[in-house]
Amino acid sequence: MSSRKELRLAGSGGQGVVLASVILAEAAFMAKKAVAQSQSYGPEARGGMCKAEVVVDDRIIHYTKVEHADFLLALTQESLDKYILDVAPDAVIMIDSSLTVPKAAEGHRVISVPILKTAAEAVGRAMTANIVAVAAINSALNIAPDEVLEQAVLAHIPKGTEELNMKALAEGRKLVK
Amino acid sequence: MAEKRFALLQGNEACVEGAIAAGMRFFSGYPITPSTEIAENSALRLPQVGGKFIQMEDELGGMAAAIGASVAGVKAMTATSGPGFSLKQENIGYASAAEIPCVIVNVQRSGPSTGLPTSPSQADVMQARWGTHGDHPIIAISPSGVQETYDLTVRAFNLAEKYRTPVILLMDEIVGHLREGVELRPAEEMEIINREVWDDPERARHPYRMDEGQLVPKMTPFGEGVGYNITGLSHDGEGFPTNSNEVTNAAMRRMLDKIEKNLGDIVTYEELMLDDAEVAVISFGGAARSVMGALDKAREMGIKAGMFRPITIWPFPEKQVRELAEKVRHIIVAELNDGQLTLEVERVVGGRCPVSHLGKIDGTVLKPDEILEKLKEVSK
């Protein structure tokens, strides 16, 4: 069994999926795992489809991109419909509960959770959706211990937003148990 | 960022850290995707170490200012991508002819022209060698990962200083925007080369005169009290223009020889699983990571394949590739362009074995499975 795990995070530009992937990569790095993180996006600053990838392994990573995602996070219907088509056979799919599960997702474990709603209502700031997602993903995949993930978040957020983001982490964790 | 020895960094960030460790204290440029983080981080980091960052009016100015800083004795770098690399060519030629050490980073993106700004490509291979006109010495080196970006940026400065030449760090979007763990070895633990300077200020008046047997003239920083001349025109030992064919020929030969007679020092490469290989894939930069992924699968399927990765792209590792062609049944060149390195490999191999090109020109990366298919095809 390969220790290589391929994660793909997809959404719309501005939702923070790249930062979410960086934080997950940082947490894996802090947890002494080999990691490769990358992203692809169009020239526009907001809108447009955006995908970010994290490869985590116990061994040295050769190919740095995702071939067949073992895990897919989709925050928009468009990105879900597109990237569901090339996930690994036993992939875990996490989607925002506002999305419709496409036919292609049949046979996969689909975790449908209210990421966007939790950020907007329970945390109180829609822009924390990516941090909510990071916590939910870590609960599902156990990439790093909770305290390591917290350190990874703190390393990548603006000063003065610590409390807000810790709240987002706590709410995100509750989504997947 | 730099106080930590181990960090998760983008290739572009590691480039800046490597440059600072190598002694870079001046950066001039004009930000362009996918190299922007190099300018951003230089702007952040240089003032912290007593250096200067300047955003110039355009890429031409960025190159010119880097040359000026270097002549004044400061290790200098500029960074860009395809469109800006085109604009820098004239001044790169000047640095080459006037023998001014400097480092030019080109984080390649999909072209031609403005192309696909955020997409990877490796289509500046030939431009790195021949982008500026005239026979000229140049060195281009290409990293395949974030650690190697750190290490090779140091090496780029070392080569520039040692051979008094512009050195091109030929990156690509894959590596520039890739985040990986990197060990930021401090300068004290690495070899750091500084240019040779005349102790005797009188001799500094002859910037291109050197002792018998030397190929690289010593230089003295402008502004240290000794006046001397520099020009892109063909020049004599005093740095003044000459129309003498004999002087020009000797100067040209010496400039080209300083690279060609030091290949053993300049050329580096990596060999992977080549001991028993029947098929060799030649690849470089970010594309080599796809090849490594494909080799893992090929070996599981019993295909005896290995990889030869030029780290020094120019001068090209001719001798090594020629020897490789004697050993293997087939060479595949995997690169993100329409066959630029393939041309060079074909020239060097000279029919010793078949050479196939596997490329992409649509702004996407080569996938390991695409390389695997090609390996299966030529292994039949």
Descriptive terms for the model:
heterodimer; A: 177 residues; alpha/beta; Pyruvate-ferredoxin Oxidoreductase, domain 3; 6-stranded mixed beta sheet; 6 helices; globular; B: 380 residues; Rossmann fold; 2 domains; 8-stranded mixed beta sheet; 5-stranded mixed beta sheet; 20% strand
Summarize this entry quickly.
The complex is a heterodimer of chains A (177) and B (380). By secondary structure, chain A is an alpha/beta fold.
User: What is the percentage of strand-forming residues of chain B?
Assistant: 15-25%
Q: What is the structural class of chain A?
A: alpha/beta
Helix content of chain A: 25-40%
* Class based on secondary structure composition and strand pairing of chain B: alpha/beta
Description:
The complex is a heterodimer of chains A (177) and B (380). Chain A has a single domain (5-175), classed as Pyruvate-ferredoxin Oxidoreductase, domain 3 (3-Layer(aba) Sandwich). In chain A, 37% of the residues lie in helices and 25% in strands. Chain A has helices at 17-30, 77-83, 115-123, 129-141, 146-154, 162-175, and strands at residues 5-12, 34-40, 49-57, 69-74, 87-96, 109-113. Chain A has a 6-stranded mixed sheet with strand order 2-3-1-4-5-6, with helices on both faces. The radius of gyration of chain A is 15 Å and the shape is globular. The model of chain A has no long low-confidence stretch (mean pLDDT 95). With 380 residues, chain B is of the alpha/beta class. In chain B, α10 links the parallel β11 and β12. Chain B is built from 13 helices and 15 strands. Chain B folds into 2 domains: 6-189, Rossmann fold (3-Layer(aba) Sandwich), CATH 3.40.50; 270-379, Rossmann fold (3-Layer(aba) Sandwich), CATH 3.40.50. The radius of gyration of chain B is 21 Å and the shape is globular. The mean pLDDT of chain B is 96. Classes of the chains: A alpha/beta (177), B alpha/beta (380). The A-B interface holds A 22, 25-26, 29, 34-43, 61-65, 67 and B 8, 33, 117-119, 145, 174, 177-181, 286, 289-290, 292-296, 365, 367-369.
